[in-house]
Design a protein that fits this description.
With 231 residues, this protein is an alpha/beta fold. The chain contains ten helices and ten strands.
Length: 231
Amino acid sequence: MLEINDLHAGYGESTVVQGVTLRVEDGQIAAVLGRNGVGKTTLIRAIAGLTPPRRGRVVLNGQDITRLPAHEIARRGVSLVPQGRRLFPSLDVREHLLVGARAARGRRWDLARVLDLFPTLRQRLRHPGGKLSGGEQGMLASGRALVGNPHILLMDEPSEGLAPLLVRELGRIMAELKRDGVSILVVEQNLAFALRAADHVYLMSKGAIVHECAPDELKRDDATKARYLGV
C-alpha cells in the first residue's frame, strides 16, 4: 500500500504540491485528475524521488521512503512510466527491457512475460526506442517499468497521444496488471479513460487534493467535473 501524507514539493522558490494526502491500496488503480498545471506531474515526481519532497511523508508498505534517493525508491518497488515515455535513443527494445530488470521474490515480470503482454514489441526487439511509433513507445515504457517488478506503478499521462484503439488496449493492460496484484497510481487528462480504468479518483486543484470519490460518483457529478476539470 502507498500512503501520501501532507506532501509538499516544488522547484526553486515555488511550492507546486501543497499538502497532498492520498492512498493507493494493494491491487487498486487510483487516478489523479485535474487541469493542466495543477501539480499532478510534480506529485508523481515527488513520490518517485525525482523532485524531493519539502514536507510530508511517502510510505510504501509501512516503510517511510520520503527521503530516499530515486534509485533506492525504485529498488523498494516503485516504478515510473513518465510523461512523454523518456526512452533512451541509443538503446533498442531488448536493451530497454533488460536495463531496468530487477528480480523480486514472489514476482515474475521478466523479458519473456513483458513480450507476452506486448506481442508487438517481440517484432521490434532490435529497433531503437526512438524509432518506434507512439503506441509502441508507450508499450516499451510500461514494459521497462514492469521488469522492475514494482509494488506500485506510477503512470503519468499514459494515454497521451494514443489512438482510441490503443487507449482501450491500455485499459485492458492496466486491468491485467491489477489482477496480478500491481497497484497503480495514474495521472490522466483523458477523463473517460480514467473513469473506466480507476477504482478510486482524486481531483487536484492548485497543488492540493480537493475531492475524492468513486468513478461512478464523479460520472454523475456534473458540477464537480465542470468546476475542477472544465468538462
